[in-house]
Each structure stands twice: as C-alpha cells, then as structure tokens.
Amino acid sequence: MMFSTLKLKTGVKTAILILILFSLTSTYSQNNRQKENILKTARELAHKNPDSSAYYFNQKIELDLKSRDTISAIKTLKELSILYSHNLNYSKSYDGYWKALLLADKIKENKLTADIYQEIGWLYSFYKRDDKALEYFNKSIKLRKKEFAKNESNAHFIASDYFSIVNLHRCNKDYKKATQYLDSCIFYQSKLYPKITSYYIIAEQAYLDAVNGDYDLALEKLNRCKEHYKTKDETYLVVIYSLTADVYRMMKEYDKSILEYKKSISLSENSKSHLNYKLKAYEGLKDIYLDLKNYKEAYYYLDKATTLNNRIFGITSENSKHLLEIKDNYRLEKEKQEDALQEQLIANYEQEDKIWLLKSIILIILIISLLFYGVVLIKQIKNKHKNEKQIIAEKQKLKTQKTNEVLELKNKELTQAALRLIEKDEFIAGLHKKIESAGETVNKKVILRALKTFQGTPSKNWTEFEARFTTINQSFYENLRIKFPELSQTDQKICALVRLNFPSKDMSKLLGISVESVHTSRYRLRKKLGLKREDNLEDFISRF
Fold first, then answer.
1. Fewer CB within 10 Å of terminal CB in the chain, N or C?
2. pLDDT of 453 strictly over 60
3. What CA–CA distance (Å, rounded) separates 206 from 216?
4. Contact 278, 309 (CB under 8 A)
5. What integer pLDDT is reported at residue 6 of this predicted model?
C-alpha cells in the first residue's frame, strides 16, 4: 500500500514538472512569435511610414532587453539606426549606434561591434569628418581580420568595410585612393566561395571607369546594376540613378543626366531611404543648369539644396547638436567604467598588501632559509603598488585640472555676458539723464548725440570679437601667419570669419564694410592662398 502511494506521489510530481516545462516552453514560443511579428511590421513600414516603423523597432528592443536577448537587441538597434540615417535623422541614429556599441562591448561580440563601428564611420562621413570616419572604418577592419583569420568566409565583411572607404574617397573626389581601396575590396570579395558578384563594387568600378574616360563601359556596368537592384533591393536604385546621372554629366549629355537625377529624387522620396542622395541630386541639377545658363532653374535647385542642407546640418538642426556640444554616451560610460576599475585596483592593492604581510610572517616562521629573499620580494611589490597608486592619483589630478580649465573658460564667457548687460543698463541710465537735462522741450539732436555717444563702432566690435576668438582658437593666427606671412590684417580677419562660417552679410556688419567689399576681399584672399576655382575656401581655412 505504501509503495503504491509513493508511486502515485512520484507520478503527480512528474506530471506537475511536465506541465511547468510545457507552460514555460509555450510562453517562450509566444514571446518569440510576438517579437517576430513586431519586427516584420517594423520592416514593412520602413519605406512607407518611417515614424511608425521606428515605434515598432523600439517596441522590439524593449522586449529583447526584458527577455535579456542582448544580441537580438543589438541587431534591432542597428536596423533602427539605419532607418534614422536613411531619413537624415543622424542625431537619433548616432544615439542608437552608441547604445548598441555599449551592449556589444558587454557581451564581447566582435562581429556586431565591427558592424557598429562601420555604421558610425558612415555617420561621420556624412558630416564630412573624414578622419573620424576612417578611424572607425579601420577599427572595424581590424576586428574583421581577426575573424577572417579564423574563417575566410568572413572576407565579405572586410570587403564591405573597404567599400565604405572607397565611397568616402570617391565622394571627396580623391579617385586615386578610391581606386587603391577598391583593389583591396575586390581582393577580399574574391576570397569567397562560392563566388558572389557584388553589384555595390561594380557600381563603384563603373564610376571610376567614367572618371578615367571610359563612359561606355561605365554605363554598361551601371545598367547591369539597375537590372539587379530592380528585383533585389529597389531602394539602392536611388544611388545607382545618381551615379548614372553623374556619368552623363561628365559626358555633357545633360538631358539624360537631368532625367536620372530626377528619378533618384523621386525614388528617394517614395521609398523614404538614401535621402542624402537627394541632396547630391539637387546639387547636380544646380550645376547642370548653371552650365546651360538656365539661372532660374539653377537657383531653384540651389535653394532646394540649401534648404535640405540646413535642415540636416544647419546650426538649429538636431543633427548638429553632436558637433556643437559634447554628447558621447559611449565615451562617458567608458570613463565611468575606467574610474570604477581604478578604484577596484586600489582596493585590490591595499588588500594584497595585507596578504603579502601575512605571507611574509608565514615565510619567516616556516622557511627561515628564504627569509632574506621573501623580505626583498615583498618590498619590491609594495614599491610597485605604491608607484601604480601614485600614477592613478596623478591621472585623476590631470582629469580634474582639465575639468577646471573648461569651467574657467565657461566662466569667462559668463562674465563677458554679464558685462554686456551692465553696459546696457549704463547706456539706458545715461540716455535717461541726457533726456532729462534737455528740458521740457525735447531736442531730437540732443537725443541723437546721446545715442551716438553710446553706440558701438565696428573697430570696437571687432576688438571684442577678436579677443574672444583668440581665446578659443589660440593657435589660429599663428598657424596662418607661418604658412602665409604675406596676408594683411584684413585678410586675417576674413579668414577668422570664414573659419566660423559667417555669411557675407554678417561679415560686412562686423567689419564695417560693404557686402561688395567682403566679396572682393574673399576673391583676393583666394588668390593669395593659391586656391583653384574648384577648391572650397571654408574647407581650406578649417584646417588651421
């Protein structure tokens, strides 16, 4: 009887365990189906309604993080950031990549980290910050090559990184470097087995063929790319149409070029992707109509390009915040981690000191013959720990000093702002006294003379501006005078204003000269700097 009861209890326990396992499996499956449905919806809306698509991507990320599926969360963050990037919301794209990078660092996932480095490189290239773009492209390549050493099937990813560098140099019209990196790109692509044709690479080859004057071959390759992407990835036709338009423009077949640019713009708007190529198309159309002396159309597309450029990169744009303020969550998080690690190291060293002291006592008691050796060893380790603590303390001191210097600079700006307010109050008080002293009948000439007394002069305004400019850009004038000693003071002033992207109208007000004089000064400055017609003055000055 007892045996039967025991057997029955065991059977009940087994049944309960099976039910629990079934319940957990069912819940897990339901969660997976829910996440897959949300991701599918997000992808379907990406080229129709980007805002709704972003909403569903964010839902998927929340579910991934709740279920601790970090790899899935990183991949979804990457897709969300690409969506923002295609729609020119580089600020949110930037934040998404840094979040993904922090997660990838925690789980030590090199492949995903390399993917994110590449995408961050693309973002920096959009801002024309080429050094930072190349830095992240090369970081990605370094990680990819480690994976390639383990498995050559990873060659495709290295080819993708080199493709990014090719695109960067091609957009900067550095065709020699673009060709060199394209060779590296083709080399790693050839390592794949079975062989895979990359139409991304073919499109870049086509453009470089056109640069070298082989227009027929370039168009033949681009037409092959068109046929491929019509069925595989229609959104990439935005890029192909733009490249085809560029080739026709080189051939001076302007009607065909205009048609291809307009196709690129239309598809970009309809698919809500590659909107940065919309800006390139506007600029291309503007240049064509200038060549055709159709100034009305040229101005129309210039206005379109300027408006779109200001929306993306203008001073009030959300995208520019990352260029105007320090917003680097990844760097800040890394600094916190390093600070915590340093504190832990100090604590470990202190604990180790105690352990070594105990060990020295044991060594003295147990191994008298090794007493001298043990004492010397302990002393050396203590000195090492002491030196390391001192180095860490000095690093902390330097960091604090740097923070204080930033605060001091901000305080100077605040003081100057306060002085301006005081000057305004003194101006108002002085004006009030002068009006009262004029008697009951107010004389307009008296008021005007009073106003003139307190009115600033261009010379005074420039002196104040130059003082603040020199404080922030300490080596600018010195570098400029070393390279171009023949520049006059007016030339140096123009250089400073160009460095800050001042428009001609604001330059004329600050310098107290006409807009025409500003244009003349800029023209003379270009000649003194030895710039060609196609060289950009702003880019040249920004190097100093």
1. N
2. no
3. 9
4. no
5. 44
- Helix/strand/coil (H, E, C) string of 71-94? HHHHHHHHHHHHHHHHCCCHHHHH
- Whether residue 254 is predicted with pLDDT greater than 90 in this model: the reply is yes
Specify the pLDDT at position 426.
61
Dihedral sign computed on CA atoms, order 351, 352, 353, 358: positive
Asked if residue 171 lies in contact with residue 125, where contact means CB atoms within 8 angstroms, the answer is yes
> 199 and 224 in contact (C-beta within 8 Å)?
yes
Q: So what's the pLDDT on residue 18?
A: 61
Q: How far apart are the first and last CA of the chain?
A: 96
Instruction: Give the span between the Cα atoms of 307 and 314, in whole angstroms.
Output: 9
Q: To the nearest 10°, report the CA torsion of 129, 132, 138, 141.
A: -80
- One-letter amino acid at 119 equals E
Two tokens, residue 193: 């087995």
Please check whether residue 210 is in contact with residue 247, taking contact to mean a CB–CB distance below 8 angstroms.
yes
Q: How many Cβ atoms from other residues are within 10 Å of residue 352's Cβ?
A: 14
User: How many other C-beta atoms lie within 10 A of the C-beta of residue 455?
Assistant: 10
Which pair of structure tokens corresponds to residue 452? 């003139």
Tell me which of 382 and 348 has the higher pLDDT: 382
Give the model's pLDDT for residue 324. Answer: 39
Chain centroid offset of residue 116 CA: 12
Classified as helix, coil or strand, 520 is helix
From 72, 31, 70, 76, select the one nearest 55 (Cα to Cα).
76
Q: Average pLDDT in the 490-496 region?
A: 84
Q: How crowded is residue 285: how many other Cβ atoms within 10 Å of its Cβ?
A: 25
The backbone region for 22, taken as left when phi is positive above 0, alpha when psi lies in -120 to 50, beta otherwise, is alpha
Is the predicted pLDDT of residue 80 greater than 80, yes or no?
A: yes
- CA 376, CA 363: separation in Å to the nearest integer? 12
Place of tokens 């040249």: 540
DSSP 8-state class, residue 1: -
Distance from the Cα of residue 539 to its chain's centroid = 18
The pLDDT of residue 459 is 65
| pLDDT over 90, % of the chain | 28
Closest CA relative to residue 115, chosen from 76, 151, 172? 76
CB burial of residue 388 (10 Å; 0-12, 13-18, 19+): middle
Give the CA-trace dihedral at 271, 276, 277, 283, to 10 degrees. 130
Radius of gyration, CA atoms only, the chain: 33
Quickly count: other Cβ atoms within 10 Å of residue 433's Cβ: 11
- Label residue 88 exposed, middle or buried (CB < 10 Å: 0-12, 13-18, 19+): buried
Report whether pLDDT(147) > 70.
yes
pTM > 0.85: no
Report d(CA 231, CA 224) in Å as an integer: 12
Residue 297 · residue 305 · CB < 8 Å: no
